[in-house]
Amino acid sequence: MTIKVLVVDDSALIRNLLSEIINQQHGMKCIGTAPDPLIAREMIKALEPDVLTLDVEMPKMDGLEFLEKLMRLRPMPVLMISTLTEAGSETTLRALELGAVDYISKPKLDIVKGIQAYAEEIANKIRMTAQAKVRKRLVPSDVPRAQSADAVLPKAAGLLGSTEKLLAIGASTGGTEAIKEVLMRMPPDSPGILVTQHMPEQFTGPFAKRLDGLCSLSVKEAEEGDRILPGHVYIAPGHSHLVLARRGANYVVTLDRGPEVMRHRPSVDVLFRSVANVAGKNALAMILTGMGKDGAAGMLELKQAGAYTYAQDEASCVVFGMPKEAIALGGVDEVLPLLEIPGRVIQRLKSMGHGAIRV
């Protein structure tokens, strides 16, 4: 089956380059290009593309306004083409909130060389976007060989005694919104929460800030040496693996710029292994929507260490990759729709004797 792609960008250079890259790929075809959303709207009706690539700053109607209308009236898989800047990261997070499946950066300097260098990544993003489940939005509401977590963090010989509870979350494609939905449903007296979301480093700070404004929990981008406190969430920075460690009686954050694991840094496997090593049976973990296998092996280690584990079910995932792999390995205790997971976690924490957490 050929993936039909419509490119929407006000730059003729970008439209031509993306068209060329797409048409060079096996099983993929650029069926048209549009310089603005109004023309794109008519082309979508006529050509019925499988994937739309969408710029943000365009004449007549900006990409976010168009995306909001599109996801309400005719939901379809959308890949955003954005610029990796602080301002751009806020825009991209808003696009994901509106229903875009994923994003890829435009190069800052030499556009032609940059786009050509990103050809493989663009093609992979389009293939992944085409597989995503897209729903009508309700208002409001050289590839390195994959490494295991051994490359960064060895397995522990034994666990240190503790009764302090901890929650670990891992996600990738579709995860920014899934994580938001989970955290907004967790009470302020939740145990400390560690989150690894596959995301470039320019995005993790704004992502944490956005969540902090939406949740009753305190959310921040993790920093080296942070003490993990109840009611606080620590987001892995895009440049480092997030690792749980112990300092005396306290859980603390350590950051590791070691090699990529499963093609990712931060890696969910590294986070999960560290939680298995340090927290063991006092931990709960969830693996949410995402492409690939990262987190599956780490979740199995968590379960084997006595942690209780959850996976998002296929029906509620944007991409049922990471949860599927974790389930297949036998590392998952419960498979649940996304919005049911927080309630079950709260019930579990209550049964474990975590403070005065509400059920």
Assembly classification: single chain
Summarize the amount of helix as a percent range.
25-40%
Distance between the termini: 47 Å
How would you name the CATH homologous superfamily of the largest domain?
A: Methylesterase CheB, C-terminal domain
Per the CATH scheme, the topology name of the largest domain is: Rossmann fold
Number of domains: 2
| Secondary-structure content class | alpha/beta
| Architecture per CATH nomenclature, i.e. the level-2 architecture of the largest domain | 3-Layer(aba) Sandwich
- Element order: H for helix, E for strand: EHEHEHEHEHHEHEHEEEEHEHEHEH
Spans with pLDDT under 50 lasting ≥5 residues? 138-145
Strand order of the largest sheet: 8-9-7-6-12-13-14
Query: CATH class of the largest domain, anyone?
Result: Alpha Beta
What does this molecule look like?
It is a single chain. This protein is of the alpha/beta class. The protein has two domains: 129 residues, Rossmann fold; 197 residues, 3-Layer(aba) Sandwich (Rossmann fold), CATH 3.40.50.180. The chain is built from twelve helices and 14 strands. Strand 6, helix 7 and strand 7 form a beta-alpha-beta unit.
What descriptive keywords fit this protein?
359 residues, alpha/beta, Rossmann fold, 2 domains, seven-stranded parallel sheet, five-stranded parallel sheet, 14 strands, 36% helix, cytoplasm, hydrolase, Protein-glutamate methylesterase/protein-glutamine glutaminase, protein-glutamine glutaminase activity
